[in-house]
Structure formats: structure tokens, C-alpha cells
Amino acid sequence: MQHYEQATFAGGCFWCMVKPFDKYEGVISVISGYTGGHTVNPTYQQVCQGHTGHTEAVQITFDPTLISYKKLLDIFWQQIDPTDSQGQFADRGESYRPAIFYHNKFQQQQAIASKQALEESKRFTQPINVVIEPATTFYPAEDYHQDYYKKQPEHYNRYYRLSGRANFIANNWQDKPATKSE
């Protein structure tokens, strides 16, 4: 019997957080949605208005025998600016804050160790400002947000470039391991 686990990450616009995980063997699904807030089953419009407390995030279902949580953390770090706690790239505000939402004690320990390794690597001159919090209820986003990079590839690619994410990743992560231990 298969035993799947979940990982939940927030890294700004959830459209840009699906594709990087989607291509790995062992990743069963990547769902865009909202977490960390106080409104039950919020809509995109409500989250964007900033009154629900939710953060745009992705919830990844994965097979830990094929891909480790540590590998998912490494992928996560390389999609974001880990020094910016106020949003990501063109997206500003609480609903775009970067965060790792752990589902169990093991994930919490792995996330803390991963963040510490990134801090110790001195890759960035500013502090690493990604919060590590317990996972709460995750609400899938509306259907039109799911797999957006596949449904609207031209718009997705334009947004990915113009938001500043593509250049940041190219300048800070391309061909560079996330930590000294890799």
C-alpha cells in the first residue's frame, strides 16, 4: 500500500510555485491554494483583499520513497527570495509571504535545519526571513488557478519574467546548490 505525505510551501504567487515541483518523480500532485488564515473556504478575491489572514501556497502530495522532504525543501528555497518576508517579487503583502508549513515533527526539524544551512552558507548578505509554522487547514484555490502554467503558458511565462522571479533565480540560484553540504 502506498504511503504518501504532504508538504506545504508559500513562496509568493502560487502560479509560480507549481511548475518547479511538478516535474519530479515522486511528486504525485501540486495543488494551489490558501492556508494560515481564519476565513473558512476563502476565495481568491477575499485573500487578495488581505482580510482573511491566508497565504497563497502550494500543497504537494509526494511519495517519500521516491523524493525526500529534504529535496522538496531544496527545491522550495531555489524558487524564492528567502530574505524578503513582505512578499515575493512583484507580489507584496501578507498573502504572498514566504513560509514553510510543516505537517509533523520530522518536517519541522528538517525545515529548521534547512533554513539554518542556508543561513550558514552566507549565500545572502541579509537574514533568511522565511517563517516555519505548523500546517493548518489548506483550501484548494479555484479551478482556473490549478496548473496555471499549463493552462495559460504565455501569460504564465510573461508573469514569471516580468515579476522579477526569473532574473532573481537566474542570478542567485542557477547552477548553485542551496547549501554547502550539497
Automatic annotation (TrEMBL):
Record family assignment: Belongs to the MsrA Met sulfoxide reductase family.
Keywords noted in UniProt: Oxidoreductase
Keyword Cell membrane appears in the UniProt entry: no
Boundaries of every Peptide methionine sulphoxide reductase MsrA domain copy: 6-157
EC number: 1.8.4.11
SUPFAM superfamilies listed in its UniProt record: Peptide methionine sulfoxide reductase (SSF55068)
Protein name: Peptide methionine sulfoxide reductase MsrA
Residues at the active site: 13
A GO term, aspect molecular function: L-methionine:thioredoxin-disulfide S-oxidoreductase activity
Catalytic activity from the UniProt record: [thioredoxin]-disulfide + L-methionine + H2O = L-methionine (S)-S-oxide + [thioredoxin]-dithiol; L-methionyl-[protein] + [thioredoxin]-disulfide + H2O = L-methionyl-(S)-S-oxide-[protein] + [thioredoxin]-dithiol
Superkingdom to which the source organism belongs: Bacteria
HAMAP family: MsrA (MF_01401)
Its job: Has an important function as a repair enzyme for proteins that have been inactivated by oxidation. Catalyzes the reversible oxidation-reduction of methionine sulfoxide in proteins to methionine.
Keyword Lipid biosynthesis: no
NCBIfam families xref list: msrA
